[in-house]
Fold:
Amino acid sequence: MNPELTKYLRNVAYAMSASQGGCVTVVVIFAALFVGLWLDAELHTKPLFTLLFIVERLWLGAPPPTATLPTMTWVV
Structure:
């Protein structure tokens, strides 16, 4: 295979992996937001669960890109 084509395909795979990680992080944070809002509405605890879920997802569910990018590119 052509070395330039191989390099190009590897760069495309890296870009796809990085964008996938970013999209998944955003989806998980919005899911935490909506679940928190729903629980607050059901239990009449206005900001408690929303703040709790958002802070927890930002703290645990969104690791730095340097930790996820090598892992995702290894799979590709």
User: Anything to note?
Assistant: The chain has a mean pLDDT of 79. The chain has one domain: 17-75. DSSP finds three helices and no strands in the chain. The radius of gyration is 18 Å.
